[in-house]
């Protein structure tokens, strides 16, 4: 993993302070803790909005014409 130096503006002071404290407790550099937080945020944002287990089944017919497009719009807004 390549490393870069960044400057970030307008970060919530309390959230950053908590990140620093948690990183110190786990003996991690702040940069690595921030990278882990970013990776988790990206991973969470890519999860489907509606789990498959919550989908309602229905019988075919005219309602099934655009099902794949409807599924994509739900999963990947």
- Helix fraction by DSSP (H/I, runs of at least 4): 40-55%
Radius of gyration of CA atoms, rounded to a whole number: 20 Å
Strand proportion, as a percent range, falls in under 5%
* Strand segment tally: 0
- Total tally of structural domains: 1
Low-confidence stretches: none
Separate helix tally: 3
What is the H/E order?
HHH
Structural class: mainly alpha
Mean pLDDT: 84
Notes on the structure:
The protein has three helices and no strands. The chain is mostly helical. It has one domain (13-75). α1 (13-25) crosses α2. The longest helix is centred in the middle third of the chain and has 16 residues, at 30-45. The radius of gyration is 20 Å and the shape is elongated. The mean pLDDT is 84.
Key terms for this structure?
77 residues
Topology:
Blueprint (H helix, E strand, L loop, with lengths): L12 H13 L4 H16 L21 H9 L2
Helix pairs in contact: 1-2
Provide a quick synopsis of the model:
With 77 residues, this protein is mostly helical.
């Amino acid at each position: 993993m390549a490393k870069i130096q960044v400057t970030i503006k307008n970060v919530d002071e309390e959230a950053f302070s908590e990140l620093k404290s948690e990183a110190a407790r786990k003996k991690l550099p702040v940069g690595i803790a921030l990278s882990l937080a970013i990776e988790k945020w990206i991973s969470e944002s890519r999860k489907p909005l509606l789990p498959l287990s919550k989908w309602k089944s229905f019988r075919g017919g005219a309602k099934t014409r655009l099902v794949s497009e409807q599924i994509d719009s739900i999963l990947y807004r």
